[in-house]
Description:
The protein is α/β, with parallel strands linked by helices and 583 residues long. The chain contains 20 helices and ten strands. Helix 2 crosses helix 9 (279-289) and helix 3 packs parallel to helix 10.
Amino acid sequence: MFKTVKRIVDWCGEFKGRLYAGFAFSFLSHIFAALPLMIAAYTVGLLIDAEKTGMAFDTGWIWKCIVLQIVLVLLRFFFDYLRARYQESISYELTARDRLAVGDALKRVSLGYFQQMSAGSILNSITTGLGTLENMGIRMIDNFVGGYLNFLVIFIGLAAFSPVTALIALAAAALSFLCLLMISHYSAQNAPVEAAANRDLTGAILEYARGLSVVKSFGQSGTAMDSVKKAAAESCRIHLKIEWGYLPANALHLLALKCGSVGLALAASLMCLKGQMDFSTALVFLFFSFSIFASLEPISDSAHTLSVINDAMDQLDALRGEHLIDADGKDIPLEHYDIEFRNVDFGYDSRQVLKNVSFTIPEKTSTAIVGPSGSGKTTICSLLARFYDPQKGSIRIGGHDLKELTCDSLLSHISMVFQNVYLFHDTIRANICFGKPDATEEEMIAAAKKARCHDFIMALPNGYDTVVGEGGGTLSGGEKQRISIARAMLKDAPVIILDEATASIDPENEHLIQSALTELTSGKTIITIAHRLATIENADQILVVEDGRIAEQGTHTELMKQDGVYRRFIEIREKAEGWRIAG
Length: 583
């Protein structure tokens, strides 16, 4: 518990001053909450004493008591307001910062990290984990620290009036603390199990949502829901088991405090009967005995939640800084854009994809990469964009090893158009301007016109302000492709990577897009993954990839003179593109 409390305090960083001020205000609020009860009990004692002795009671004290009670209540709420004002917003500001930090970190990790970590695990850490920290972190340490501070002051007050009652209160608090240690130990063991159940449930729901179109097309909604039902049932079972496990220690914690309250009341009563304590003071103790441990009772929730928070902070640290691919990179300006692969080896897990790949792409030339599916074409482009780092060899751009640059610095020089286009759940305007947020309206429209998407955009209900569905699901494949080309045009980077950029374009618009791509790539360093002959044969050089190696390299004319992989590939493509339906 104490380790987690310290960890949360350290997490507060520059907000520590506000946190400590909140503790002080919480402490004062508790004092002003207890004083009215003590004054009321003392007043009742005076009334009873006056009645028993037949002495006149000072009615002026009643009015003073009422005014004092009002002042104390107002002070209590004033300090409670200050505590909330100083403390409550800390976690929201910190988690907002951490979510942005996690987002920044995730764009700087190897894509292999996302193959090792499931989407459910990442999403659960960012949402559930950070949500727990956001909603409960500061509140729990306020309960913990404020509760024991409040008890400490009460203990000192009891010791001043009656050491015996102080010892009874201390014994009850000590027994309660032992039970809290049991709760904390149990929670520390179960927090990872609970988090794993939450991750599995989140992952199952995500998987079901992503595959919903396949589920519907095969009419297997019942079968597909089995994994969600199983994950939900397992989550329910684990949470119930954990809750049942807390019951004994939590019940003992509350029993110790209630026994302490009864012990205080009995001790005060006996001392009053023996004449060791006046009746008014004894009455104060009797009234006070049932609220003296009020600040300690909620700490059982804190003991459990602090372990959950500790696990959430472990997940956050793992996401935020453990796998940064460009941790040693710098923002280096590039003066030229020659690209060189030197003896590059790369594989996904145990599957080797590239083997001793070496080639050079001179600046402002076009290179087509061809080869059978799975040969490593897209992997070459992914390595160039530093989505991954090679296991052996090096990749250089402009004379610099990619490892010398930060991801942002490198990618500022590269525009990519993928075969599988992803558009964000945002306006078309935001999607086109994604690579250049400060673009003017005129620049955006000019890029859209060059990519031949301006006309269909203007036909949409809100034009450029039309919101597209997640992934661009409300647009056709060709429309998404053209918007992605407009995005690349607007960015105007010196290196262009085209991964089957016209694959989803209808024949009617293909020649228009080809001319737009020609304009986009004019004077740039171009790398194209292509199967269409028109794209390949005009390249300055062609890399033929087979089985993870550069099997052949040269121009279209040079390679066609050889009886090799490329020539056979072209012959197959010519037959495929020249097919027709028999009449």
